[in-house]
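Minimal example, chain plus D-gluconic acid.
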Amino acid sequence: MSLKGKVALVTGGSRGIGRAVCLELARQGADVAVNYAGNEAAAQETAQACRELGVRAVVIRADVADAAACDAMVAQVLEQLGRLDILVNNAGLMKRVPMVEMSHADFMRVIDVHVGGAFNCSKAVLPDMIAKREGKIINICSMMSELGRETVSAYAAAKGALKMLTKNIASEYGEYNIQCNGMGPGYIATAQTAPLREVQPDGSRHPFDQFITAKTPAGRWGEPDDIVGPCVFLASHASDFVNGQILYADGGILAYIGRQPK
Ligand code: GCO
């Protein structure tokens, strides 16, 4: 499971799940390129934390929906860190809006960052991985790759598409010893889900917080560190014969129909 000598690019690496993945890949020995779109200070903090773990780390600004920017980012990683072995397509955004109130532009922006970004970054790294006959692409999928719910039509469509892009990259490039897999977090306590966990004015827990906790056999929300182990597995040679799979770290929620109300 060691990643010593490897170089990883993590999109959306400045916070939340992306930051946790950067730090764990660094703990396992990988040099890390931290991509960010807007928050340079947070990206620099992530890179510095990686350096303190004894690896090289750089930050690179790019909107992953911009293909040219992704090409330039990958070229910069190859130039600054000498190689690129692991791509983690994590960048994304959430717009919780009832579908009938959502603009086409907002819907497509969510699709373009999650799916277009993974397409752009994967397309940028594949030629070098093909030439090396080796590479790892990990797409951060979601519960919403499998299930829908109200107000997340764009995000669910994006994460569903990302699951199928994962399977297609695996299908098209597996013969070059390139493995493309997805990692599907359950409900994780991050800034992205903070609105779903806000304490109510009367001091009670958010209804969605109570719902998810009851629907998760583990009986809790996940933490970003709960999902990094599966990412290390998918980034390492331990998973060289695993391809096109979505590995869920969800506390069991996808397996569980839920208990009857007490
Ligand atoms: C939501 C949440 C989910 C989680 C995650 C679950 O609004 O339902 O934000 O989408 O973020 O994707 O895997």
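The radius of gyration is 18 Å. The mean pLDDT is 97.
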